[in-house]
């Protein structure tokens, strides 16, 4: 079966997957819902996050520690789409697929920063 790694959106935590986790597990899949930096049960405070790297550190550490032969299906909700994109760039051989669940899907023609700047205008 597959290994699903669930990445929450902004202002959420791993808790937001509470209905999805048992469904995937009951289908025989391995499931890992993660809390990103300063989210959910993460011990970090928001004031301790100096960059996006600090925010995504839990996912990056998880991906780095996973066995080379195990490929994950990354699921990102909302801003989690940006986060799983970063993980896919850093660990391309450890990702089987990515699911963007009503999520930001960055690309080189329209990066996320451009969208944020347009909203501020």
TrEMBL record:
Classification lineage: Eukaryota, Viridiplantae, Streptophyta, Embryophyta, Tracheophyta
Name this protein carries in UniProt: AB hydrolase-1 domain-containing protein
Source species of the chain: Hibiscus sabdariffa
Residue ranges of domain AB hydrolase-1 in the record: 3-112
Matching InterPro entries: AB_hydrolase_1, AB_hydrolase_fold, MES/HNL
Cited SUPFAM superfamilies: alpha/beta-Hydrolases
């Amino acid at each position: 079966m597959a290994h699903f790694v669930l990445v929450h959106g902004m202002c959420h935590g791993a808790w937001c997957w509470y209905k999805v986790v048992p469904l995937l597990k009951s289908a025989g899949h391995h499931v890992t819902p993660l809390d990103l930096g300063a989210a959910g049960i993460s011990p970090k405070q928001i004031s301790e996050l100096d960059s996006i790297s600090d925010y995504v550190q839990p996912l990056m550490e998880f991906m780095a520690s996973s066995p080379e032969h195990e490929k994950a299906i990354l699921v990102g909700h909302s801003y989690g789409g940006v986060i799983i994109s970063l993980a896919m760039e850093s660990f391309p051989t450890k990702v089987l697929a990515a699911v963007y669940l009503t999520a930001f899907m960055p690309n080189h023609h329209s990066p996320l920063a451009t969208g944020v700047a347009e909203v501020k205008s």
